[in-house]
Amino acid sequence: MTTVRTTRFCLLTALFLTAASSSYAQDVLRYRTGGSWGDISDGTIAGWGFNPALPGTRVPTGTDEARVNWGGSTVTLDFEAETFNRLLIGVDEAGVVEVQDGGVLTTTQDVVVGNNGFTDGTMIVSSGGVVNVGRISWVARGPVVGDVLGFLTIESGGVFNVASHLWWGSTGIAEVSISGTLNQTGGILGLGSADFNTVGGTATVNVLSGGEMNLNNIFTTDGETKSIQPGSKIDIHGTGRVTLPGDFVDALGSYRDAGLLHGNGTPGAVTIETEAGALPDGDFNGDGLVDAADYTVYRDNIGSVAGLPNDGGLGVVGDLHYDLWEANYGAVASVLTVVTAGLPSASISAAPEPTSLILIGMLGVLAGPTLRRR
């Protein structure tokens, strides 16, 4: 009897562990044909099913890998989807994902636009759409050079947030268009390389008028490690901007001089300068430095229900404002490096023709006495 009970216990334990592990194991979900993100397929109609073409029971969630790769069909998202592991667009077959107004797509790991199979992947983030990438953004990632095409479009009003690297054109051909906002909060930029050292595919990034490409970090052009490999480029148009936190003027200048930064289609035709970034907490007078002058502002406004600038929303001015000022004493405003289209005015002033120089000289002689009398 003891042996039977022990055997039953072991079997039940094994079944429990198997069920538990399968419920937490990664499943691969594939969208059948095209349609709305929220649809689930019965094996014949459009919607999510288990890879490669089985009926589905749910939309991607948890540790799931989601694949959009059914003959170039489009999957649209116009609501906040459940968070899932990673998204692959274009796996052996082409696919398109469009995050529309009201759509929020969030992954804990990578989003790959153009994965493999000599095909292409496309992602469009429309106005009002948001994509949150928990790790790496890949565009045109394939096992061999020239394998795939990847197209990422962030339209005006669309937002694309990335927590780690931008690996675009790592082996394939990546085309990225930014009219909205891209925010990179970790990692580094890598265009046209599989690992920042070996030249891979190519990436063309167009930051269009009104677009913001807010990067986290870049390599300099010294040595083999480069953030923009030869054959790749960033082209800034109109009022588009590329920004980096900190002073990257020299590093970006080296990419400009190498012809890898373009302005309105012209290599090197960009302006690189720094501007004040975010003001520190406790900078109550907004001059970029937390010092004794901010204490004076605090003292003169104790009891004010309107609060103070850069107080973190503390409300009525009181002891918490003093604590904030004290904790941040000496803090200075951050520096932001900004790249825009067009050369600095001093660089684009045309050299005068010789005849003009003669005329200017004559005018100078005639005007000389008058100027001296002033």
From TrEMBL:
Residues 1-25 form the signal peptide. PROSITE patterns: EF_HAND_1 (PS00018). Keywords: Signal. This is PEP-CTERM protein-sorting domain-containing protein.
